[in-house]
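Hi C.,

You asked whether I'd gotten around to modeling the 319-residue construct. I have! Everything is below, sequence then structure, no commentary in between.
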Amino acid sequence: MKTILAADIGGTNSRFAAFRVDAKHHLSYIESKWLKTRDARSFGELLDALAKSDLSVPPPETDIAVFAVAGPVEGGTYSKPPNIPWKIDVSNARDDFGIVNCRLINDFVAQAFACRSPVVESAKQVVPGRIDFTAPLAVIGAGTGLGQAALVPLAGGGYTAVPSEGGHRSFPFESASEIEFMNFLLQETGEPYVRAETVVSGKGLSLVHQFLTGERLDPAKIAAELTDASETLKWMARFYGRVSRNVALQILAFGGVYIAGGVAAKIPALITHREFAVSFQRTATMSHVLEKIPVYLNTNEESGLWGAALQAVQLLQHV
């Protein structure tokens, strides 16, 4: 029996969980702990806070640690996340943190692995279609930013995940009113172009609402007041459906599209609203493709921990 420390380190929350894996590679969950990412001034300070918490398995006592982080990962050891004010470097984890075996992965690589785990069996189908288990799947999710990845089946069994920083691509606006919104965003953000995650994220919810109503409110306040008839909800559901459609077409995700992330978990109406499905299937050329691709809503905010743990199991098999 070996012990795994899995983590999902985002711009707002850092989630940690301890797992056990037996000789047959069966994974079992022990417990989890959530910390506020920005309460720590460094990655080392975050691990110190975890060690002082009530998690029953201290980091140095684990056989392997896999940290999923919201940003690009270099060489499995280094990341400078765009929405976290410090870098993560585990190239010398034994001396720096007392962890003998340690790996960094992108947070949506973890989410991708989780899509073929028991943790998403309860995911809700929101757009009809049929999963082809021999084809790639896509996972996308908004939180502080917008993550995405693909999971590709391997001929000999198992999967490989393909990371992405597609949340930083340009967002596609499609109408005169949306072009007005684009100009509003350029003025508000001062950025050279409007990124997808600026629109489809917690911050995006506030910006859409501000554009439509003139009110500057935080996302939680807006979420509490949304109704099916709300223009803010309609616009955000349309935008979320659009970025999901583009990801589905980009990788031909006949294995399904899975929506994860804190925004959808807290405001599932963004995905279940009719505007999402209409936008997802809106195309002049690819309706025969999109009508086959199902979309699922995964509201389990700890699914990334299971994905990181599954990656750890795979790594242990090669030790």
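If it helps when you're writing up: The domain at 2-105+302-316 is CATH 3.30.420.40 (Nucleotidyltransferase; domain 5).

Thanks,
B.
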